Amino acid sequence: MQDPAGASHAWRKSRHSGPDNGDCLEVASPNRTTVHIRDSKAAPHGPALLFPLPAWEAFIDTLR
């Protein structure tokens, strides 16, 4: 899904990512209802996946 306002979000990536924006995912939480994920190589105007916040939290919980 394309995120039309994606360039204006406060995107963040892991501090473990390399300095060359290689194989990284960036995450933005522009509101309390969705989480946006994009490939750093496609930034700032590439597509982003949008997840409902509860689905994202469930995903993160399975990683812990």
From TrEMBL:
Q: Which domain of life is it from?
A: Bacteria
Q: Which Pfam families match?
A: DUF397
Q: Which InterPro entries match?
A: DUF397 (IPR007278)
Where is the region Disordered? 1-27
Domain DUF397, chain residue ranges per copy: 10-64
Question: What is the name of the protein in this document?
Answer: DUF397 domain-containing protein
